[in-house]
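Homework-ish question, so no full write-ups if that breaks the rules, but can someone show me the predicted structure for this set?
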Amino acid sequence: MKVSKNELIASLKKAFEGLGFRSGDYQDAADMVVWLETHGFDGFERLQAALIYLNATKPIHAELVQEDTHNAVLDGRGTSILLCGSEAVDLVRSQVMLGSCAAIELFDCYNRSFIMQRLVKAAQRNYAFIAYWRQLDYCVKVSIEAGAALPEYQTFTITEVLEPQSLRVFCGTSLEAIEKQYALQLQFGTLLETYTGEEMIACYQDSLEGGIEIDEALWRTLDDLVTRVLVPSTDSSRAGAGGS
Amino acid sequence: MQQDPHLIEQLAASNIRLLPLRPASQVMQLERLGSFHQSRLSFMRTLVRRMVAENWQVSTPIFDLDDQGYGTVVYQVEAKYGTFSFVLFSHYLDPEQRNDRVIANQWDLTMALCEGTVGPEQLDFLRTNVPKQEAGRVDSRVLVLSRANRSARTFDYVVDELAQGRQPNVDVIAEVGYLYRTTAAYGSGKLGMADWEKVRTKHRDFARPFAAEMFTCYMLRHFSMQQADYLAAQRSPETAVNLHLDIKRYLGIGNSTGLGMAPFLINHPLLINQWIEMRETALATAVVASETGVDRETMARLDMATQRVIQHLGEIITADERQSNSNVVVREELQALHLWLQEQAAELAITHYVWADLIQYAEQHWHIETQEVINSMLIELYPDLVDGLEEQMGAEESQQITPEMSVSELLAIIEDKYDWALAIDFSKHESVGAFWYRSEEKMEPRLGQTNIDMGMEKEMPLGIGRLVRECYDCIQDYSKISPSQNVAHFIIKNPTFSGIVARMQTMAQSRYGDIRENLVHSDVLPIYLLRCKLSFFGVSKFDPRSRLWVRNTMFQGAPLISDFGQAIVDDWQFPIKPVLTTQ
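A: Not a homework solution, just the prediction itself:
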């Protein structure tokens, strides 16, 4: 079946609310899923994987465990980027000072691809980002220039020992500035694949024009989660809607 | 009405920030927002201006009704930039099943506005799904889905009169104002429809907020009159006459609006801010335009408008005591304005009277609704100066945290922009005496009583004032321990406040910000929220049925499709009973 973007966001917001997410968190999480799905990154598949965890636990956020002027480490405590991605990106952004870039490492976190939407949104405020993480047996690198609407997504062979569930995010006023300051940490292996902004925008336009294809079972799962935020109707509650 | 081109240039060149805009502390009070009336920037007004000026063409490729008026109708619309189809299904409805509530599941009419033309296959698809409304699914070729119920008081009466060769009594029409009532017009991607982003970027004809939804209601109005003519002719072909054009223009579409609309205003604060800022800009533009004095001709136009509103309000029938009393007071005060204009206009023109003085006088002496009626009338006087603002009614609605802001700066912002929220004593029972929730019945938003009704644990976060207070207290505690930290660090320690922090930081940058009301107070009047939004839609004749829902009319007095392309004076606001002319 096909759904619209607005409809999907509305449903996801309520579904995440049903999972215990608070205002702000459920909006961000819905935006992350929809962005990935509409830009060709299998957002629904990743959501289904996330739901297994999210359905089994109360919402957990990351903890700040180490920090100096421009660098910080966050403990994801096994949570999903859907819950801690915004905090991580906000933190690294807040550490960018005049002429200097900043970096964070977030370890023990899952569903890291969702971070892309947060980077895209934050880039609108004229910050550039590079993020990378290990995915199976390759490394994913996402970079977006300050003010750009879309990132570049690349995969590389792995050359350094990366914690399997860690994510590194670098932020600065331009990609050039980040690459200059963190040259040593931004060494990648052989380029495997590049997914360009043009491909992303084509995917997005298709979903906008014709709607977003979603598996009916997933849609029903979301509906079931939405029911958690609904209140049974009674004669008294009908009066609370104004009567007729 | 032509304005001085030099004045237009002068005002266009002036920065909006230099205009004497009213402050947020005055405008964003809920009672004032709930006293707004339609203006030239209201969506129905701007849509009608566009359709008339661009001479949209409407044909009827399918008009397949039986002798009871049931069947299928498809209108094809050639707008300036595209072709659209308005598809309507007319069904038999047991009068016992006729219900205006969102929870209804059968209606007299169901409708869809679609992009392009509609072929047989798509029509079958629509016939299967559109009558089901929320229980059906449509696709991204559909822009709007809507439904309507007949007026039990007017529809059969009008058809009977026409069938017998008579025009209906205008007084009977005036009591109701319409033949059909719409109970919902869904757009913006609901139920599989096209996203607003698609409509905005692909269909320029409807690229303004709610333009497609308003057009759907306009086409419903057109059908309602065509169906009445058709049924009269079917019933009595020998004697039937068509409805008089002046009555047709006077007929609108009824509307029932309930709590479902209220959360929209809270959940779209940037959009609401934009609507209000444009309306206030229009008002300030009118004030500035009068700075060198108001001429007699403009005074006379204001006087004519005043007399029209007096008559309009006198023709409204409402059982609601508050609204009825308000209408009486507003009429009396407008009568005083009328007499003053009659007596003083010549003198005022000589002494360079300015509208700022009238606004000030009204604020000091008259009812809040009188003030806002006058403001709407003043905006009406300067179409060339204000109509361009209609292109600026949209807004990018993203709310973002500014993580680098220090917590002390955030505290200062809250104290400055949300002083109204901090002034509320939430320790009082009545300050938290209500809560908003979604019902299992079609997810309808409802208002519950704290500690009495079920569902508090599933409360919707619409009590912005209370959230601000809770967040402010938390930041204060945090800043005592970590005074030099920024918002990013505060959020990491207190992630549950990320939503309200993003809202406050974002809205602090807007001119008008949030609606200044405690929406979880036991005595909250949601009807003010509904009226505010409906005023931007452009409805008239508010008839509150309780503090939770209101009836009103849409497009009453508006030009007909047959008027498109004609030189029509855009003055159909505040509709009044027609005096029938010979056709």
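Now go work out the reasoning yourself. Hint: Residues 397-541 of chain B form one domain.
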